[in-house]
Amino acid sequence: MRMSFGEALRVTVFGSSHGPEVGSVVEGLPPGLPVDLAQVQAALDRRRPVGRRLATRRAEPDRLVLTEGISDGRTTGGPVVGYVRNEDVRRGPYRPLEDVPRPGHADYPARERYDGLMDLSGGGIFSGRMTVGLVLAGALVRPYLTAKGVSVLAFTRSIHDHSVPETALHLPLPELEAASRQNELGAPDALAAQAMAQTIEEARRSGDSVGGIIEARAEGLPVGLGEPFFDPLEGSLAHALFAIPAIKGVEFGSGFSAAGRRGSENNDPYEWVGGELRTRTNHAGGILGGLATGMPLVLRVVVKPTSSIAREQDSVSLSRRTPERLVVTGRHDPCIVPRAVPVVEHVTGFVLADFLLRRGRA
Amino acid sequence: MRMSFGEALRVTVFGSSHGPEVGSVVEGLPPGLPVDLAQVQAALDRRRPVGRRLATRRAEPDRLVLTEGISDGRTTGGPVVGYVRNEDVRRGPYRPLEDVPRPGHADYPARERYDGLMDLSGGGIFSGRMTVGLVLAGALVRPYLTAKGVSVLAFTRSIHDHSVPETALHLPLPELEAASRQNELGAPDALAAQAMAQTIEEARRSGDSVGGIIEARAEGLPVGLGEPFFDPLEGSLAHALFAIPAIKGVEFGSGFSAAGRRGSENNDPYEWVGGELRTRTNHAGGILGGLATGMPLVLRVVVKPTSSIAREQDSVSLSRRTPERLVVTGRHDPCIVPRAVPVVEHVTGFVLADFLLRRGRA
Amino acid sequence: MRMSFGEALRVTVFGSSHGPEVGSVVEGLPPGLPVDLAQVQAALDRRRPVGRRLATRRAEPDRLVLTEGISDGRTTGGPVVGYVRNEDVRRGPYRPLEDVPRPGHADYPARERYDGLMDLSGGGIFSGRMTVGLVLAGALVRPYLTAKGVSVLAFTRSIHDHSVPETALHLPLPELEAASRQNELGAPDALAAQAMAQTIEEARRSGDSVGGIIEARAEGLPVGLGEPFFDPLEGSLAHALFAIPAIKGVEFGSGFSAAGRRGSENNDPYEWVGGELRTRTNHAGGILGGLATGMPLVLRVVVKPTSSIAREQDSVSLSRRTPERLVVTGRHDPCIVPRAVPVVEHVTGFVLADFLLRRGRA
Amino acid sequence: MRMSFGEALRVTVFGSSHGPEVGSVVEGLPPGLPVDLAQVQAALDRRRPVGRRLATRRAEPDRLVLTEGISDGRTTGGPVVGYVRNEDVRRGPYRPLEDVPRPGHADYPARERYDGLMDLSGGGIFSGRMTVGLVLAGALVRPYLTAKGVSVLAFTRSIHDHSVPETALHLPLPELEAASRQNELGAPDALAAQAMAQTIEEARRSGDSVGGIIEARAEGLPVGLGEPFFDPLEGSLAHALFAIPAIKGVEFGSGFSAAGRRGSENNDPYEWVGGELRTRTNHAGGILGGLATGMPLVLRVVVKPTSSIAREQDSVSLSRRTPERLVVTGRHDPCIVPRAVPVVEHVTGFVLADFLLRRGRA
Question: Among B11, B316, B263, which Cα is nearest to B135's?
Fold first, then answer.
């Protein structure tokens, strides 16, 4: 673990936010998978800043370089190495922070963990930019999922106090995808997206930030997918998803709301519909005993409001042991939820593909 | 992974609910740790049914047998093997269910996963009884945590619609522990506990069940504890916690409520208090960048309402493809939250001890 | 690692030589594999002392107990737990050794590693008796290998200065197996076996011991089996084989003798024979680039002479820092090579099955 | 596993022989270790071709690029990323081989493993060039070993029929190192080195190649270093060493020669010498029960003769199923033993450092 994740599939993330590059090594891709560079690039582009108004102005062309493991547009079966260069690296603005830790950032605990030796400019290895390697891995494995009949989608479920209305969530996956791609917010409802954009813009204007909730769904998983006890779908997905900075909670199906429900309400009754076995409801989020039930897998993660805000904040000098007022300069998103959507989607897809590849064993 | 978890410390769980025994092999315990058998037994007893009225009537004396790795009341440094026998095994009542899957249970996906060959009597390897091995591991490692100045506690935060009031949560950890041990519910508030007990009793009487939320806290963690990227405290804790059956969500600090907060509210400002660095609030739950901040670690898990209920439920015949009405017989808890409390506590402690042992490396 | 090995298949060994039992947990066996208890027991019996004259007189009935993972004579797909009880445990004779380490045993380094707390009676977790768990794992997986058309065999290649003649080694695998089962030595040549038996008997009479070489072969492996770089067949097999106490070297194909050969001699030229691709020689031992070539896999391990000898030996008192003369009492084999043969065979089979199960992924 | 190795320390190798670069990601280095770039570069240079006459003429400047994890000449504690570019890539000469597998190379099994999709130009991921990443990892960790008082050395023990005389092997480690650095062969004896050079030159002239044996030693290991059962020093070292292409055997201490020795000869008697505990002989190679005894660790690996030879060889056409005569063109070493010496040394050092870092846990 640490910089690597996965069993049959393995991703090892490398680089840092303000070093020369960020990327990953992806092992275990079956030989012969098609690699559509434009699609992989498009996946990376989805996690880039989402427009002048809503996001950071840092210029990140994120042009993908694949140096190994691809031949004639197909995976060779060997490890794939891919990265994007960090072309707009400015270390200056971050340096003064070292003695005055930014609230909400890893500055202070990382200083203790690494004896003060790690350059946390732009977050260093704690930066959201590290997720480039995750998206790359997920994008490479996408054609495998498609070939296996598995669709994976993530979308913005809420930002601050604006949520996608329940009714919009009952769309079939392809329509949900189409709807959520029609706005910068990644929310499958135009009105909600508009309200979210306004909230983000207000946060920006007031030098503040907002958080939100992302939902991911997967359909087409074979019944029984998963491994017992320490490798349930929930545990493995959660483990991987918490690698995404700013995520502070993960829930499956009815999740935390199950606490207030009775068993007779929360159990999903089985029924035969058109020759197919399904459950009338899906409070289980498509997972029972850690194994796929065949119903859509549904998970949600919470993304905390961006820690870097323009407002002056209370902090301290670590060396002088004095209170300090701190202003975090640099370029920051007032809301990273939309950019985290493709990361959540690709991490989810990666983990599911790993389980599918493990399953092939017998 | 699968039946094993941990890096410096490793637990491998074995057995099943209705086989001859359940237990675990625990590797990596430093030599010389004191083992107080009465305390380990007490930890196991905490996860036993909590009283005639509130829980299952299955008799489980859960008498611990330790066969390896202990000598003269101390760990030898070798693997410890411990188990309890399943003395009240009745396979009969479960057999007929095989063709009619119980809603909310792993019956159907497990049947697909294991080609119908696994005996899921009493849940088999999906049973909550497997958590005996987790409690054993956590109880063995407890003296190590104590020696390192780390305290870990879990308690019932809510059951169905009854929650422990906010005021009760501000107690120091030892008092919180004392309060939560004063009732069968594991809730640190007598009135709330009474209401919870009543709710559970009502659920039982109506042949139903209820869920709830468990909170775990840890104090005394060294600042910077954790590992980067794929081994943040959150990811590793979540991975291990999802091994506990019925858990469907995990959140840290302000968790899902962070979605509705602004950065200026959610960031925890630093301050020097009596020569010690702390944060004014603890929305981070003691974790930033996956590393311990030195503030109390706070996490919550949701426990779904027990899937086995006495009421008749809708299900199907898998072979005949017909709808069926199902009554789950056998002995079941209308609420497993109180029994899951010590499991959550010991899993949390185990994972933190693993990180502490990894940290010792340099 | 440590007490566990394997990826798709995993074995976790537990117990110790003079505790109540030794055994293992085996995960990842496909559901539905036939389990012939008599054959598994027979595999365990092959590693028992090989006769009054040649081996230890310790009585070890090694009656297998399987408590999980088997149903109606088939694997369920869940973890299998099996063990044998240690029925003839005598701790007395070993205790006095603690201050006077036995040459050739782990006594002294283990004392340092475990702060003197581990009971090394009979070797403790360093005992050859721990290999019961390995044989169990290998025996359980044998029907899977057979179903995949893979045969695995180990036999005694040499004991002290007596080797099986080259001519006997050219037999097809089934005949080699038959021949090597016709004597207690596990050597596929009656005359050599007789000489070996005499050498062992002489060693016993003179209070000494002898070592030897075991060869393992596997046929029917699919071409390309293996994983790149850190998981070549050689590396994984060697890793697992060194878990067998007393093994001090592993070589593949022409092994160490390749050092004295030229490339033109050591390269195995390809040829088509009867529509099948093979190599004229097999100096590669069936492995190139860590992957199976389709030719028989051939490996050899060296087993050092038993460290426990009846003769008085030079040692020291660790506490008094004085020289001491030591006599190791207890019951010991003057040669453990024949008993190690089935262990080598089953470890080899287990590792190959793990690779086969991993291969199924795509 | 696969492209990664290690537990507390982890190396992930990336790149391929004829892609743009080869290198590795190294995780787990403690923060603050000094990094002397010149020394790391010197380590890489040791595995480069060793002179016009003896080695390949391929130009490989192997200029190290370190892009992460180093700051002000010290490790930050984060992952280190390093690589060298492949500046002299010529794919042409290798392409025609695809249908006619080179004897002794991975061509044929890799074709099956990777469905013919992997470009094995220059060996691809099977190339000895991948070991650049191993040397990098070992060189980075060297200052840690030095700080812990551990010295590691590898040297050429034999090439073809010329061995370093026994007498030269009794030198203390620093003198052994000095002697083995005085010639291109890495052999600690001038006369033997001369004979080896002559043998290699003869092999070259006759279009052939030769193999040999490398010995590695480590001193200063703390008594008891190692982990039980599946992580003995031998098993972990062997696993890592077999990642080096062309290695076909590993032995420890007296190794295969122990097969012909009696227990009374092979056991190493303990003695107190000048207040220090040691053994009179060291047939155990410094390892008992998988744990370090405090005596020098001694291991040997066999390097097969280079598979690429200039002579015409017998092979086949895979597609036409005909016999073919094959001439391997390109630039090849007639003996890679001297170049493998630093790789063996650094892999050995890396694995030992991993064990030392794991040991720090309690």
Answer: B11
Does C222 touch chain D if contact means CB atoms closer than 8 Å? yes
Enumerate the residues of chain D whose CB falls inside 8 A of the CB of residue C234: 242, 247-248
Query: Tokens at residue A318, please?
Result: 């670590």
CA neighbours closer than 13 Å in the CB half-sphere of residue A267: 29
Residue A302 touches partner B, C-beta closer than 8 Å: yes
Q: Per 3-state DSSP, what percentage of chain A is helix, strand, and coil (rounded to 5)?
A: 35, 25, 45
| CB pair distance less than 8 Å for B275 and A321 | yes
pLDDT tens digit sequence for A219-272: 999 999 999 899 999 999 999 999 999 999 999 999 999 999 999 999 999 999
Residues 6 or more apart in contact with residue B223 via CB below 8 angstroms = A108, A109, A112, A113, B291, B292, B293, B294
Q: What gap in Å lies between CA C102 and CA A311, rounded to an integer?
A: 71
D87 half-sphere exposure, CB direction, 13 A CA radius: 9
Q: D361–B228: do the CB atoms touch at under 8 Å?
A: no
Helix (H, G, I), strand (E, B) or coil at C318: coil
- Tens of pLDDT, residue by residue over D323-339, are 999 988 777 889 999 99
Rounded CA-CA distance D64/D204 in Å is 30
Q: Residues A75-92: pLDDT tens digits?
A: 999 999 999 998 766 555
DSSP state letters, D105-151: SSHHHHHHHTTT-S--GGGGGGSGGGGHHHHHHHHHHHHHHHHTT-E
Q: What is the mean pLDDT of residues C141-167?
A: 97
Q: D71: distance to nearest CA of chain C, Å?
A: 29
Cα–Cα distances (Å) from B173 to A34, B192, B297, in that order, read 55, 18, 12
Say how many C-beta atoms besides its own lie within 10 A of residue C93's C-beta: 13
pLDDT of residue D48: 75
Give the one of A12, A19, A78 whose C-beta lies nearest to D68's C-beta. Answer: A19
Contact at 8 Å (CB) between B327 and B309? Answer: no
pLDDT in tens, B107-154: 999 999 998 888 776 778 888 899 999 999 999 999 999 999 999 999
Entry pTM: 0.95
The CB density around residue A146, as the number of other CB atoms within 10 Å, is: 15
List chain B domain ranges. Answer: 4-359
Q: What angle do CA C317, C322, C325 make, to 5 degrees?
A: 70
Which residues from chain A sit within 8 angstroms of residue B245, using beta carbons?
289
Q: Are D264 and D253 in contact (CB under 8 A)?
A: no
DSSP readout, B301-316? EEEPPPS--SS-EEEE
Q: Identify the CA nearest to A194 among candidates A204, A202, A183, A203.
A: A183
Other C-beta atoms within 10 Å of C36: how many? 12
Question: How far is residue B256's CA from residue B250's CA, in Å, rounded to a whole number?
Answer: 9
What digits encode the pLDDT tens for the residues C11-37? 999 998 878 899 999 999 999 999 999
Fold assignment, D4-359:
Chorismate synthase, AroC fold (3.60.150)
pLDDT for the residue C273: 96
Cα gap C134→C126, rounded to integer Å: 14
Judge contact between C353 and C139, C-beta under 8 A. Answer: no
Per the document, the length of chain D is 362
Touching check for B78 and chain A: CB below 8 Å?
no
Element holding B142 (H helix, E strand): helix B132-147
Using 50, 70 and 90 to split pLDDT, how confident is the model at B295? Answer: very high
Of the candidates C322, C312, C332, C329, the residue with the CA atom closest to the CA atom of residue C245: C332
Which pair of tokens denotes residue C157?
Answer: 């290649």
Helix (H, G, I), strand (E, B) or coil at D11: strand
Which residue among A71, A81, A113 sits closest to D117, beta carbon to beta carbon? A71
Other beta carbons less than 10 A from residue C2's beta carbon: 18
